[in-house]
Known about the structure:
Elements: H1 92-106, E1 108-114, E2 117-122, E3 134-135, E4 138-144, H2 182-191, E5 198-202, E6 205-210, H3 215-222, E7 235-240, H4 271-275, E8 283-287, E9 293-298, E10 302-305, E11 308-314, H5 316-324, H6 334-339, E12 341-344, E13 349-357, E14 363-368, E15 387-388, E16 399-404, E17 408-423, E18 433-437, E19 443-447, E20 454-464, E21 484-489, H7 498-503, E22 506-513, E23 528-532, H8 535-539, E24 543-544, H9 556-559
Amino acid sequence: MATRTSVLSNPKPGTILHRRVTSATATLQPPIEITRTTHNRSCSDTAGLVSSMSHLRTDDEPYVGGHYDALASIDISFLGPDGSLHMGNVSQKENKAARRHLGQVFGATTQYFCEPWVVLGCTPSVPVGRLPELVGGLIAIWRQADDMDFSPKIGEFGQAEKYMVVDASILEGFQDNRIPGKDAVARLIGSVFPTCIAITYVAGTVVVELPRSEESVFRETLMDMPPLIERAPFNLQYHNGPLTNVGRRRRAQKPKPQVAEEDRVADETDYVAKDGQFYPGTMLSSVDKKGNTYSSASAGVLVQKGGQQRLICSWHCWEEHDKKYPGLFDEDSNKAREVFRIIQGEGGTEVGRVVERVGQTDIALAKLHPGIKFVNNFMDINTNAKSLVPSNQVRLYDRFLIDGFSTGKQTLVSLGRRFEPKRAEGEPHSLLLEKRLDEDGEEIDVVMPKDEVVYIAGEQGVSGTSDNIQTEKPYIRDSACGSALVRCFAENKKHLPMKDMLALGEICGMFHYADPTSKYADSASKYLIYADAFDPLIDGGWTIVPPQGQSDGANTELARIPHHEKPEGEESPKKKRKV
């Protein structure tokens, strides 16, 4: 924003004008040193505590410590009844018990809590094996104790000497510990940040994404940007251009191996040839002129509308094809069917062609060939898809499972949402200011709402993970895109055990993009993952195809039953792992 704004003078000492969201506090707790022991600690000091962690027990998973939340075994959660996530939600006694448990079981002798993250420094080294993704609901980042560099900041702070004061109507729709809706964000963009390219809400912080510029220009711009907005229930940061990982992948060649990629496993099985049908998370590919794999992603879920059925998949696999052959995508010709065909498995069966792109999202719809069967049963998640969930029903700190062909089952934590605006023609207007008196009787400028037409053209869910920086499998990496997000924990349904939550079959979005991250990434922004919301499909009348409508009578009765309830002897489809 080039125009300098008039803002409130610095407050008098002791005056509180802004409530920073506790769950987004960037102050690191002082590290504590713990002597590692090899015996199990008694949990008597936490006996009788009411906790929401019991549903996280997943003893069938091979996690170090036995659970995907490191504190599940001692029933401690930092998630509060108001939806906040921070250490203040438990007693000092529980905090000490949590720290002691982390030191004894995992060797985490140094611990930095920077909600919603926690950095765990292990001595003498990070434990070998699949490490818990959460610590009492916080996202765990595992490091060696001598390498604890980590910044919880997503962007940069504004450097203006004064706070900004806005009319109360501009902040309507923003609440503590709640993801704002698109109307509230559109109003904030139109009235306060008219030149931004996007607004990303992450765990209590609004990150204003400004048009990319030279770093020196961005630093100069920060001098005019307010460090916060008075009485806003969010912190404020700025980013030079789009946030890390939000860009859509555009590869001209099959992805080159990343670090140790040759040692990783992926499921390239042709399930159509093997089982006579295929499933969510299986490998889908576009091909080049010679029929070789061009780009791959994971299959989504099957949806229906008005008697038509379509498979959700990732548009970017065919984006370069669309650029190379302008106008061909809309044709119903042999050439179009050849260029936009879909192959299931490596060098496997042709199952259909992409026929529609949903708006400007990465969501594409594919029409399957006659006789090709797709079943909405997940392979490594004990459920089948039952409903598409609109973005406004996803809350902070909800949790999802994805099941992609290159990752297997992985956990993501909802941290917010990214909003891309679309404006009316013409240059954005300057801020609309009104003179008012503050509580001390001094005249100040207040930013007022404007009638400028701004609406949200695209929404993406923002999730966090630490899986991509672990040294052992599983990994989040290229080709995880396309995977459906299955809700396994809802912040407003804490009482539901995971198996009951999964049985609902709630599909909350499509994994958008994965950029393999160094295990020593030092910025929180590099651990953010984005998912395309299904709102355009829901608004268009698309719904999940029920199990009985998916396979022409083949095993349809079994398909209706969630995996964990299937009769003994009947196995869920399992993946064949191939290097």
